[in-house]
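A sample copied in:

***
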Amino acid sequence: MTKKYFDNKLSDKDFYLNILKNEPRDYEANLKIGLIYVQENNFLDAKKQFELLITINKLRYEAHLNLSNIYFMENNELKSNNILKNYLTNISENLEIINALSINLLNTKKYDQLDNHINKYLYKYSSHILFYIKGYLLIKQNKISESEKYLKSSIEINPNFWQTYEILLKQYEKQSRLEELSNLINKAKHFFEDTIYFSYFYSLYLYRIKEYKKCLQILNNKNLLERFSKLENKIYLADYFDLVSKVCEKLEQYGKSYDYAIKRNNVNLNLDQNKKFNKDLILNTIKSYQNFFETQKKPSLKQIDKGLNHSNLTFLIGFPRSGTTLLDTILRSHSKTLVLEEKPYLLDVRHEFYRQNKIDNLLSIDKKYRIELQQMYFNSFNFEKNKIIIDKYPLNLIELGFIKTIFPNSKIILAIRHPLDCIISCVLTAFKINDGMTQFENLQTTSLFYNECFKLFLNYLNFFHIDHHIVKYEEVVLNFEKEISQLLNYLELSFENNIYNFQKTAKKREKINTPSYSQVVQPLYSSSIGRYKKFEEVNEIKSVTDYWVKYFSYNV
């Protein structure tokens, strides 16, 4: 979030200098000169000007605010914030100063300080900024429902502030609350109809209610591409490409759908916040594991001390877009399960191990250290010993060797989908970028990653003789009761009728942290089976995937 730093309605510099010749302590003229210096990027003289203004009249907020802004622009956050805090503590509780400090703390991600600051002033002043930021902070804390009333209050106070609409529109869409999404769009229309942001969300709504032709018509006819391309923040451009890709697929324009997905991926990978991620890092990790387990003597599982009791622990793994979110939701509907939110609980333990050890030490962990790592894992969530714990994190597939070393008694569910369906879906999906998701740039990079992941998986099977259960996405869709009954039998659970109502379970969740959020609230559909057949581009990678198509018993 950015604040309006300086008044840009600046008049002629000579005009104000002439005023100051006769009235050197004229506040308004000095303020204008200071703002002109800022506009000229002459921060040194601007600071002198605002410091002078404070000596002229320290009670007025403008000089304090603008002086703080300059220090913030110079990355002196401490000095900037101290000026604002000093004003609030020693001079006056001014709403402009309160808002400015709120925005400073938000932009620097000082969330604890920000929360205390907001709570102090929230109900003393009618500020849309304060209510907006309070809602934002609650979302950061995963208190989605609680955030909504603050965001609504922000809109009531100032219905002409887009940022609040945007965050609430995203919330409604991700929760599939389409009626409320429609109502909010209609409200926003009065103020923002001519903006590209409104056009995007209105198109997104049309997509969600399956008005695909009308959606694409808006996306194509509003010059949105040119206007989004000119924005400094390219996230909006990526979102635009993503929506065009999805609606083109629905309209059976498969070549265009693929092309726009590639454009979106290129934009996402080149965003400043994503340049830190290294595509080679995860591939090098896989290679290291492959080399290590190929050269080690196979352990006797009977001789491995199991540590803490973890017989109720199950890891749900698989290549992304293989149906893990669907299985998560189905299993979450059972009364005897605790399905963890998709967070890196295991990876945190893994990182702790490798912070102190090398891979050569993995198979020589003693009982005490194994228990220490197990305890670290179980302490990271609300462990319930009387329930089956299911940790769903698809690319823990790569860490299966670590899993079976630290948790040798854990069960493993492997979600499988036709390799080509899996791969094309990864390319077409807008993932939040990390080292793993960088692999999904195009079909070639994704198929290479798929191949390396499952080569490693075979190494693990050969090394540990892992007891695991495979669930095929296609069988869940076409033979639901049989496939899920077999899965529950593996977990030593009985079938419950509530399993059939898994969509209700999904709708009750405030937030589903995967790209499948809009799908798992729908009834099962078979249209996603054989998705790859619609995209001619997959022919380029069939030589890479044929082995896995046969291995997992699909028709070539």
